[in-house]
Amino acid sequence: MKATFNPPVRTLMGPGPSDVSPRVLSAMARPTIGHLDPEFIRMMDEIKEMLQLLFKTKSPLTMPVSAPGSAGMEACFVNLVEPGDKVVVCQNGVFGGRMKENVERFGGEAIMVQDDWGKPVDLDKVEKALADNDNVKALAFVHAETSTGVRSDAESLCALAQKYGCLSIVDAVTSLGGIDVDMDGWGIDAIYSGTQKCLSCPPGISPVAFGEKAIDAVKNRKTPVPSWFLDKNLVMGYWGGGGKRAYHHTAPVNSLYALHESLVMLHEEGMENAWQRHQLHHDALRAGLEAMGVNFLVDEECRLPQLNTVFVPEGVDEAEVRTRLLNEYSLEIGAGLGALAGKVWRIGLMGSACNRRNVMFCLSALENTLSSMNAPITRGVAALAAEAVYNA
C-alpha cells in the first residue's frame, strides 16, 4: 500500500512554478462549494475585476481558463485562427515556437520572424514581414520569453499590428505581475498568462483577455471553433458576468480560491510596488552574480527582472550544480532550453519568491557549490555586492 505523499520543502527559484505564499496555500484548503453556488459566483466576479485591473483592461472577456498557461495560449489561437489565415509569429526562444505550432495545427500559415535567443524581437523585421504579406490576420509574440529572460517591446509591436490592420496575440505568462502589462493602453487584442509565475499561485490556471476586435473576430468566424472546451462563445455563458450563469464545465473551485487570494495580495501590495520589488531584488542578485564572475545572457536594457538567465562558468557541469543545490540546499534553479541547454541557468525571482532572503540564500548556496567544484569565480564578494544594493 502506498503511503501519503509529503513533498519536500523547496525554495523555488527556477523559471516556474514559483514559491506559493502560505496565504494562497491556506486559501486552497477552504471548504469546496459548488461551481454554481451564489457565493462562488460572487468570487468569480471579484476575480474577473481584479484580473481586469492587472491586465489594465475593461474587456468583458477577461477570465481564468481552467487549465495551465499553455491552454491560455491555445485558447487565443484556437478562437482566432481559421484555416488559411496568415499569422506573423515572432520567435526568439522556445515559446514563439509553440505559437507557430498552434497556428499550424489550426490550419493557419505561420510567417516566421526569427531573432537570436536572448535578443528582443526586432521591430524592423516584423514591419517588413507585415509589409511583404497581404491579409495578415494576426501578429503573435512573446512579451517576456521564459526560455531566455528577454523582454520585447510589446507596445511598439502592438502599434505595428494596428498600423497593418491585424490582431495582436501576446504571451504574458512570465510578465504579468512582474513588469508592466497594459492591454488597453498598448492596444493588445488577445493576451494570456499563467498563475505559477509572478502571481505565485500553484500551476493550473491561465488568465486570458480578449479585446473588442478579437471578440468580433471570434463571433464572425467562418468555421466553428475546433475546441469545444476553449470556445469563448460557450465559456462566456459561465464567465460572462451577472448572477445567472450557464453551466459549461466544473471549474477548479479550490484553485480559483488560490487565484483570488493571490490577486488580493497583489492589489494590497500595489502593482507598481510589485514591479519595483522585482526590480530591486533583481538588481541585488545581479550585483552579487556579476561580482562572483557569473555573467548574464541578456543585455541590461531588455532584461527581465523576474527571470535571470546567466552563463555557466567555464568547465562547470551545470547539471551537477543544479542537482547539488537541490539535494544539499533544497534550492531549485532552472536549466537552459534548446540551443542554450547546458550553457545557462535560469534563476527566477517571481512573486513570493522575489525577496531579500531568497537572493542572499541563492548567492550563498551557488557560491559554496561552485567553490567546492573549483569553478573560476571570485569568492567572498557576492553577498557584499548584493548588500550594497539593498543599503544604497
TrEMBL record:
KW Magnesium (keyword) present: no
Residues engaged in binding substrate: R346
Aminotransferase class V domain span: 32-336
Entry keywords, A to Z: Aminotransferase, Pyridoxal phosphate, Transferase
Pfam families linked to this entry: Aminotran_5 (PF00266)
Domain of life of the native organism: Bacteria
Gene Ontology process terms (BP): glycine biosynthetic process, by transamination of glyoxylate
Cofactor(s), by name: pyridoxal 5'-phosphate
Annotated family: Belongs to the class-V pyridoxal-phosphate-dependent aminotransferase family.
Claim: Phosphoprotein is one of the keywords in the record: no
GO molecular function: alanine-glyoxylate transaminase activity; L-serine-pyruvate transaminase activity
Modified residues (N6-(pyridoxal phosphate)lysine): K197
Lineage: Bacteria, Pseudomonadati, Pseudomonadota, Gammaproteobacteria, Oceanospirillales
Name of this protein: Alanine--glyoxylate aminotransferase family protein
Annotated source species: Pontibacterium sinense
